[in-house]
Amino acid sequence: MEPRDEEIGSWLEREVAGCQFKDVRHGKRFVTLLTQLSEQIGGSIPFACQDWAATKAAYRFLSNARVDEEKILAGHFLCTRERFAATNESPVLVLHDTTEFSYHRDDPESVGILQKLASPYAKGGGPGHHITCGILMHSSLVVTTDGLPLGLAAIKFWSRDKFHGANALKRSINPTRIPIEQKESYRWLENVKQSTALLAEPERIVHIGDRESDIYELFSIAHQAGTHFLLRTCVDRLAGEGDHTIADEMREVHVKGLHRVEVRDKKGTVNEAVLELRYRRIRVLAPVAKQKMYPPLMLTVLHAIERNPPKGREPIDWKLVTDLPIRSRKEAIEKLNWYAMRWKIETFHKILKSGCKAEDVKLRTADRLVNLIAILCLLSWRVFWITMLNRTRPEGAPYMALTPTEIYLLDQLVSDPPGATLTGNQLSLYLTKVARLGGYLARAKDPPPGNTVMWRGMTRLTDIQLGFILGTKLVGN
């Protein structure tokens, strides 16, 4: 088989095609750096670049004032929109969450401060402070209802220096009177707006968030945009005409169905939990200080509370709010399953930190770190996408994820399991071969390969492919 040079990095070329750097050289350096890091997932910049000239060029790119996360991810955002438009599924979920990247630096101000805690171990024996420096990232991941990540739709970075003194202000002023623009939670609103505008079909979107997303302003902007949301609530808001709260009303609601789910405790033991389902359509009001700015909304409140929880495990207690109607037990379970997909963004962040080693880099300034994390987000999504593609689209064509050269090499390197010829050359067959290169045993009762073996296998396959291409050229000469 004759490999074609244009096959190499084809997925990468698609993800960066929409990037528009003002300086053409920046675009070329970005592609080079992304290629180098994709070939050594989890490796340091010097390890990926291999020589001082390439390493220095990478550092210059990351520290350039005309390079930022929006330019780096612009092409990926467009690809996310294309994948969203290509899927016929409705709805599609947009998962929102915030994560922290912690670093140990002698000069924490250059990176940004996450938290400052009192410490009894200060120099000189007196009271002091322990400073943790780092960056916060709020990301929005688009996934199908069966868990396939289509890509990022919005991302924001910041440090807590910008909101210094906000907690002290809350102790003297009612937090509801502080403008939302002065709070960290404003990132939730920005990402909802940006992701909804990017995907351009608001009626197909359901925004998913944990208790940090329980913000009335978010309810309002989603309503105005014509999009939907399903959020876990932690605030007992005013309801009806303002003479009672949501909790008062929900206490009157009888159990409308039961739902059984499997739950693992801290020891890994699987138990069955029985959830009592209660739901009601309720007129919800904004906080008193903001009722002139935001009108009341008709929302559905869904409570799923575990019946007779066992000792030694926290009981399941989900209190969700959505603008969508719930008219039956089936629809209530559907919404619970959608909210359970929120853990997918936690997995994305885990790959970013554990697989791509985003917290192990030695860059010394926030701007450089943000640019590198944005690049690593592309690699993290790619690993996650391939892992979930194997689980959600097992009968798909191998060319959805692999090039002809990669398919050829996998056929030569990894033998087919018994009976594979009877089921055809499905995507799952080849992605399992990739996982086997990464240490997956593929025994009959093994669960589907996870993210770790997938990125290990992808890295090894890249090395093998480069060797194959070099060998082919040498023989050809």
UniProtKB/TrEMBL annotation:
GO biological process, one term: DNA transposition
Segments forming a coiled coil: none
Domain Transposase IS4-like: 328-379
Domain Transposase Tn5-like N-terminal: 10-67
GO molecular function (one): transposase activity
Pfam families: DDE_Tnp_1, Tnp_DNA_bind
InterPro entries: RNaseH-like_sf, TN5-like_N_sf, Tn5_transposase, Tn5p-like, Transposase_11, Transposase_Tn5-like_C, Transposase_Tn5-like_N
NCBIfam families named in the record: transpos_IS4_3
Xref: PANTHER family: TRANSPOSASE, TRANSPOSASE TN5 DIMERISATION DOMAIN-CONTAINING PROTEIN
Protein name, UniProt field: Transposase IS4 family protein
